[in-house]
Write a structure and sequence with these properties.
202 residues; alpha/beta; 6-stranded mixed β-sheet; 4-stranded mixed β-sheet; 10 helices; 44% helix; globular
Length: 202
């Protein structure tokens, strides 16, 4: 249910459980962590999903069994954030719950116009993963972070763009083409130079 395609240094990771809104099971999350922790050799990484939803977060049964509070979420976002290459979340649809962490950890986020963004941890009785509020606040500020995490607001792709949560809104049929275009220079560059520039960018 997690697909990995490797081509000329570009790693494309696809969540492939569209019949369940790409909700994540323990096995899926473990596989994502495994890929992210092994991706140091990648020249760029694109994260996307199949269907009309990027991810609904944790699978409900798995969440009730403990996945909602697993340290796998933090391991995943930490591994993505630590990568020396350019990382892009190509959001093919709505992003919800704990799945926000992996997208927030990416360098860039692009989304289709139909995408919505929400993170209803407080309503569900959980704390967000520790790094998620800080990463979100760095992008959109503390008030808008509270709007999502504490006021429980579901925001549109346009609002996400206006806030700075996503960097571009892209037609669905151009999403992956745009993602690949964004990483093309990094894939073609000397990895040492690309990693050096990444370190210089705050």
């Amino acid at each position: 249910m997690i697909e990995l395609e490797q081509e000329d240094g570009l790693w494309t990771v696809t969540l492939n459980r569209p019949d369940k809104a790409n909700s994540l099971t323990v096995a899926m999350l473990e596989r994502l962590v495994e890929i992210a922790e092994a991706a140091g050799e990648a020249r760029a990484l694109i994260l996307t999903g199949r269907g009309k939803v990027f991810s609904a977060g944790a699978d409900l049964e798995a969440a009730r069994a403990g996945l909602a509070t697993s340290d796998l979420w933090e391991r995943l976002s930490g591994a993505i954030a630590a990568l020396p290459c350019l990382t892009v979340a190509a959001l093919n649809g709505t992003l919800a719950g704990g799945a926000n962490g992996m997208a927030l950890a990416c360098d860039l986020r692009i989304a289709v116009p139909e995408a919505k963004f929400f993170y209803p941890v407080m309503k569900l009785g959980f704390l967000p993963q520790p790094s998620d509020p800080a990463r979100m606040a760095a992008l959109i500020g503390p008030a808008r972070t509270r709007l999502i995490l504490m006021a429980g607001q579901k925001i549109t792709a346009q609002e996400a763009y206006d806030f700075g949560l996503v960097d571009r809104i892209v037609p669905t049929d151009q999403l992956m083409e745009t993602a690949r275009a964004l990483v093309a220079d990094s894939v073609a560059a000397d990895p040492v130079i690309a990693a050096g520039i990444a370190k210089l960018c705050p």
